[in-house]
Specification:
The structure holds 2 protein chains of 2 kinds. By secondary structure, chain A is of the alpha/beta class. Helices cover about 30% and strands about 25% of the residues of chain A. In chain A, the strands form 4 sheets. A 7-stranded parallel beta sheet of chain A has the order 7-10-6-1-4-5-11, sandwiched between helices. Chain B is built from 6 helices and 15 strands. The chains are: A alpha/beta, B alpha/beta. Strand 12 of chain A pairs antiparallel with strand 11 (about 160-165) of chain B, so a sheet runs across the interface. Bound molecules: flavin-adenine dinucleotide.
Chain lengths: ~325, ~240
């Protein structure tokens, strides 16, 4: 028996969120005695990169190298993971909550007749029954969830679990996936991906700007600050609605939900819908000229002041210190 | 063209979340319920597609009687008729079974819903319904156009998007900017009163992962304010106190 982990990768790198899922599975295996952790990766990935998944606690990686799996075709990925699940005789599948992860996990819940819990924030409680704590109401609350099926799927919320890094390299095994044309319903005709940037959903530090930035021409300031911090940039919804910033940078209830160690909000009022996307951040810094801005109530540190004055100074101070 | 839009009935995004009955259910005192914001995008696009192609647009909600105003609002926005599956939505699996059952009966060409609900944020129902019906499912979909039976979509991926072409029938979990939310007008509100709202019974009681109790996160401490002329102080605090640098 093993615990299976579905690994996502982009541009040749295994995603940090997937390594968190492996770390979670590793701790879960130790708790429940479910044997070793086996990861499954689909599409073209570097073998050494796959072996390094062992550092987070996987003993073995099954690699379904079929290049048709390079694109995240939901059904094909679900079919392939179901095959890996049967192959290793797993009872539990662990994966990172993400756009692709959610969609794949949902189909697997039916294929494997497995209870699926998303947004998991802690190891399950297995003393009498099986309950899992998950984040709900966009971070405003938690629910203990009782899973009643023999097979189980747990989708882990990002940054909820400490990453394990001290394991040994995993062995990488070829995994022959059987796929039909029906698994590839829907043809991907083009992909647009921002390259070279730190991706917002996974960033450890995020610097966001709101309508208080007055216009897209002022974003250089946000980018400079992000650069010294090694941060991704984000924005509030009106900013992407007006087109000052691309849609995929929009943070909040209806946008990207982030959970970085540090979130810096500049010229954002802190409307509840924005907070819903950032309330899982470990530390929040707010820069706003209005001392009554609601964001200060959610912040750990705040500066009341004009962003145009404060941000360049902060960037300089960080440059001197870091 | 027959379109089904599945909508959730969720607390307004500004609601303060609290629990009652020994933390076993949501305290609905003072909470205003709305159509799930992502579902609202799905509905808005569905109204446009129905107007473009003709045919019929049905909305469905799995919920008890108190969700009817939410369904009436969807009718006022432009749906032709509504189905309420008369049951408390216990978990995503239970909801997906109901949707799949009635969707099969209705033989829809296109099934749209939000990418996730804003109460349990699972993002699972579209995929489960797809698997139950043996239909392709796509999510999160931010653009969806029809050219005959070909559907041209854009799906959000981390840091970008993917263009996809697929054939009807299919299921999509939607998000912005697929369409602009529609606000019901007076004519819509009047006509919604006479549009059919059919109440049907659930087909099974099976669940797989049900919430048993709820908790609130620990209260947040007060913000530490730093003078705008002392930004160096902030850097020190982030480094030594918060330890995030
Ligand atoms: C259903 C729904 C879903 C939503 N989802 C989201 C979401 O996902 N994400 C999101 O962000 N919003 C969302 N919103 C919108 C949200 O309610 C707010 O309108 C939005 O967050 C406000 O953005 P803002 O703070 O940038 O702009 P504003 O509210 O205009 O605030 C600008 C702030 O900048 C400050 N400011 C101005 N000039 C300066 C300066 N020179 N220096 C420093 N500070 C300055 C002001 O004091 C003010 O606090 C949603 C709304 C609804 C109804």
């Amino acid at each position: 028996m093993s615990i299976l982990v579905y690994i996502e990768h982009a541009e040749g790198k295994v995603k940090k969120t997937s390594l968190e899922a492996v770390s979670f599975a590793n701790a879960l295996a130790a708790q429940t005695g479910e044997g070793e952790v086996v990861a499954v990766a689909l599409g073209t990935v570097d073998q050494a990169e796959l072996a390094s998944v062992g550092k987070a606690g996987a003993a073995k990686v099954l690699h379904g190298a079929d290049a048709r799996l390079d694109a995240g075709v939901i059904q094909a990925h679900a079919s392939a993971v179901a095959q890996a699940f049967q192959k290793v005789g797993a009872k539990t599948l662990v994966l990172a909550k993400s756009s692709l992860g959610d969609a794949v996990a949902a189909r697997l819940a039916i294929k494997l007749q497995a209870g699926l819990v998303s947004n998991v924030v802690e190891l399950p409680n297995t003393s009498g029954g099986y309950t899992v704590k998950r984040s709900i109401y966009t971070g405003k609350a938690f629910a203990e969830t009782a899973v009643t099926t023999e097979n189980k799927i747990l989708a882990i919320k990002k940054n909820a679990i400490d990453l394990r890094t001290d394991g040994a390299d995993a062995s990488v095994e070829n995994f022959d996936v059987q796929l039909s044309d029906a698994d590839f319903a829907g043809k991907i005709t083009a992909t647009e991906r921002a390259t070279g940037e730190i991706l917002l959903p996974e960033a450890d530090i995020v610097v966001s700007g709101g309508r208080g930035m007055k216009g897209p021409e002022n974003w250089g300031m946000i980018e400079d600050l992000a650069k010294v911090l090694g941060a991704a940039t984000g924005c509030s919804k009106p900013v992407s609605d007006i087109g000052w910033r691309p849609h995929h940078e929009h943070v909040g209830q209806t946008g990207v939900k982030v959970a970085p160690s540090l979130y810096v909000a500049v010229g954002i009022s802190g409307a509840i819908q924005h907070l819903a996307g950032v309330n899982s951040s470990k530390c929040i810094v707010v820069i706003n000229k209005d001392p009554e801005a609601p964001f200060f109530k959610a912040a750990d540190y705040g500066i009341v002041g004009d962003a145009f004055e404060v941000v360049p100074k902060l960037t300089e101070a960080l440059k001197a210190e870091l | 063209m027959k379109i089904l839009v599945c909508i959730t009935h969720v607390p307004d995004t500004t609601s303060k979340i609290q629990f009652a009955a020994n933390n076993t259910k949501l305290d609905t005192t003072g909470v205003q319920f709305i159509i799930g914001p992502y579902d609202d995008y799905a509905l808005a696009r569905a109204v446009e597609l129905r107007d473009q192609t003709g045919g019929k647009l049905t909305v469905l909600n799995v919920g008890e009687a108190e969700t009817e105003p939410t369904l009436r609002k969807a009718l006022a926005i432009g749906a032709d008729d509504a189905i309420r599956v008369n049951a408390f939505p216990k978990d995503s699996f239970f909801v997906a079974i109901q949707i799949a059952h009635y969707a099969k009966e209705g033989q829809y060409d296109l099934i749209l819903m939000g990418r996730e609900s804003i109460d349990f944020n699972g993002g699972m129902v579209h995929g489960m319904v797809g698997e139950l019906l043996g239909m392709p499912s796509f999510s999160p979909v931010m653009k969806l156009d029809l050219e005959g039976s070909t559907v041209k979509m854009a799906r959000e991926i981390e840091g970008g998007k993917e263009m996809i072409e697929a054939q009807l029938p299919l299921i999509a979990g939607c998000q912005e900017p697929i369409a602009e939310w529609k606000i019901p007008n007076m004519r819509g509100i009047m006509s919604a009163r006479t549009k059919p709202l059919n109440v049907v019974e659930p087909v099974s009681q099976e669940t797989q992962a049900e919430a048993t109790s709820y908790q609130l996160p620990p209260a947040k401490g007060a913000v530490k304010l730093i003078d705008k002329d002392q930004v160096g102080e902030l850097v020190k605090l982030l480094k030594n106190e918060a330890k995030v640098l």
